[in-house]
Design brief:
The complex is a heterodimer.
Chain A (H helix, E strand, L loop, with lengths): L6 E7 L6 E8 L3 H12 L7 E6 L11 H5 L23
Antiparallel strand pairs in A: 1-2, 1-3
Chain B lengths: L22 H12 L12 H20 L1 H5 L8 H26 L5 H9 L16 H22 L5 H29 L3 H20 L11 H6 L7 H18 L10 E3 L4 E3 L5 H11 L3 H14 L1 H20 L1
Antiparallel strand pairs in B: 1-2
Helix pairs in contact in B: 2-4, 4-7, 6-7, 6-8, 6-10
The chains are: A alpha+beta, B mainly alpha.
């Protein structure tokens, strides 16, 4: 049996002005075939105007084990948000 | 509904084997799931959770793929160009649904080829419903109305299933599935309002598909020992019997509305329960179909395996073409 076709991650831009968003994945031997398979699989109902396909093997993801180290420090820095600051009611346009 | 594989070959329920897990990790996982948090591919998960999901998702995917066969059977004989275009679109959707689910299952570390091998060798199951034949055009109506209707009933709660990629695939599928049910009901509606022969054809299809559709929800709760764990882990959100009851309650008025009769003499509205009472399901038939004794089980698998084998040269040629192109690019 021949080897499995490589896996590609598919990103769809729903309409111009929006970012591409991850939709799923497809198997294809090359980029062209991946775009065509992604078109058939993820845009049968006008879901998109543009596709990105990326070989799944090249995606580097953060490790869930490190998620505290990476993301928790933001939780105690509420002063980064505008609602942290109390401004009197009578002050407008701020 | 898609976990009939949990039965052994005698059709009896087998409990999942216990695997020793790190208690602290397990407790953290259980707490996350209980709080309705989603689990993502790289997160720690108990081995039994992973296994149950691979089994359920691959089986769900197989059901979509095999589900193309009974309907594909009628594409060339659809009674009008409109019906043909609709049926083609529906069958293409089923293929797409299979692909979303295979892709989601692959995030758990299984491969597409492993899943196909399990299906083709008969190790993995698919929904029992697809082992019944589609004898007349009305069967295409009955499948859309009842089979897709039952699938929707099962899939809507799965949009909140605890495994993120599965839940996301279900959101996409549910969005698309609603047209499947409506086109099926429309076929039944037109036939039921047609000539006496057409109405008979619609009634005959309902007679043959009603009970197998109720069986799609799987064995009764008291014979579904893995349900409790799947519910706790939010892999399942409703029990088989709850979903079956809901399906009966919404479908009976739909049959009444077009003058068709649900083939169950025990069916009656129970005022006290606010639900329909219905007759006993023939579980012997269900387990026989699970064991592979469905009327067209062999035909379905033969068609599926044939499609895979006949396509082998295409898969190999595409790989060879890419290898050659890659080598040429490297030489330049």
């Amino acid at each position: 049996m021949s080897r499995e076709w490589p896996l590609w991650e598919v990103f769809v831009r729903a309409k111009n002005g929006l970012s591409h968003k991850h939709a799923g994945s497809v198997h294809a031997v090359d980029a062209r075939m991946a775009v065509e398979a992604a078109r058939d699989t993820y845009t049968r109902r006008m879901e998109g105007v543009s596709l990105w396909v990326v070989p799944s093997a090249v995606i580097v993801a953060s490790d869930p084990g490190e998620s505290d180290a990476l993301f928790a420090p933001a939780a105690d820095k509420v002063y980064r948000h505008p609602t942290f600051y109390n401004i009197p009611e009578n002050i407008k346009n701020i | 509904m898609y976990t009939t594989e949990l039965k052994d070959k005698n059709g009896k329920a087998a409990a999942a084997p216990a695997i020793a897990e790190d208690p602290a990790k397990l407790a953290a996982f259980e707490a996350r799931v209980a709080a309705d948090d989603f689990i993502e591919p790289k997160d720690w998960m108990p081995e039994a959770y992973r296994k149950t999901l691979v089994r359920q998702m691959s089986q769900h995917a197989h059901s979509e793929i095999v589900g193309m066969l009974p309907e594909g059977n009628w594409i060339t004989r659809a009674p009008s160009l409109r019906r043909k275009a609709v049926l083609l679109a529906k069958v293409q959707d089923e293929g797409g649904h299979g692909l979303y689910l295979y892709a989601a299952a692959e995030t758990l570390g299984t491969s597409r080829d492993e899943m196909f091998a399990a299906l083709h060798s008969g190790r993995a199951k698919y929904s029992t419903i697809f082992n019944y034949p589609t004898l007349t055009w009305a069967d295409i109506g009955a499948i859309g109305w009842l089979v897709d209707g039952a699938a929707i009933m099962n899939q809507v709660p799965l949009q909140r299933t605890s495994y993120g990629p599965y839940a996301r695939a279900m959101v996409r599928i549910c969005k698309e599935e609603s047209f499947h049910q409506r086109q099926g009901y429309e076929i039944m509606m037109v036939l039921a309002a047609g000539s006496p022969a057409q109405k008979r054809m619609a009634q005959d299809a309902l007679n043959r598909w009603w009970w197998p559709s109720l069986m799609m929800f799987g064995p009764p709760d008291d014979n579904s020992p893995n349900s409790a764990q799947s519910m706790r882990w939010r892999i399942k959100r409703d029990t088989n019997d709850q979903l079956r009851q809901k399906f009966v309650d919404v479908t009976v008025p739909q049959a009444d509305a077009i003058g068709l009769t649900v083939p169950d003499p025990s069916l009656r509205w129970n005022e006290e329960r606010g639900a329909h009472d219905f007759g006993e399901i023939d579980w012997e038939e269900f387990y026989a179909v699970v064991r592979g004794e469905g009327p067209v089980a062999k035909e379905r698998m033969a068609a599926r395996v044939n499609a895979w084998e006949e396509g082998a040269w295409v898969r190999e040629a595409a790989l060879a073409h890419e290898a050659k192109r890659g080598a040429r690019l490297a030489a330049e």
